[in-house]
Amino acid sequence: MLNAVLLLLLPLQIGSNYVDFRRPLPWNVSTAWNPNIYSLDSFTRTQCGVEHLTIKFPWTSYPGMNKEQGYNALNFWWTPHSWVNDVAIVNAGGCR
After folding, report:
1. Domain spans in the chain, listed from the N-terminal domain onward
2. How far apart are CA 29 and CA 37, in angstroms?
3. 3-class secondary structure, 47
4. Over the stretch 32-85, which tens digit does the pLDDT of each residue have?
5. Is the pTM of this model over 0.90?
6. Gap between the Cα atoms of 71 and 90, Å rounded
7. Going along 6-92, which residue ranges are E strands?
8. Nearest 5°: phi and psi at 42?
9. Strand 19-21 relative to strand 11-14, pairing
10. Alpha carbon 29 to chain centroid, angstroms
């Protein structure tokens, strides 16, 4: 399982062993965790979105916890400055 947190932060100053951000981090970070910092330039998808769309899955009765078919509609990962607008999702998993 991937344990990750994505924050979009504006750096004020970058040194050889530090980064000063415009605003403080919402929690303490330890170098023992081997944190990574990426530039927005490293993202392969940005400024993309989904609009004016209806996604319909077949209606099914609830089969029980962890036995669902997995009807999931959208997943944006590592896509800063992206959007979903005017989208309807019908009968998606976990939305009963």
Report:
1. 11-90
2. 12
3. coil
4. 888 888 777 767 777 889 999 999 999 888 888 778 777 888 888 778 889 999
5. no
6. 10
7. 11-14, 19-21, 49-56, 83-90
8. -85, -10
9. antiparallel
10. 20
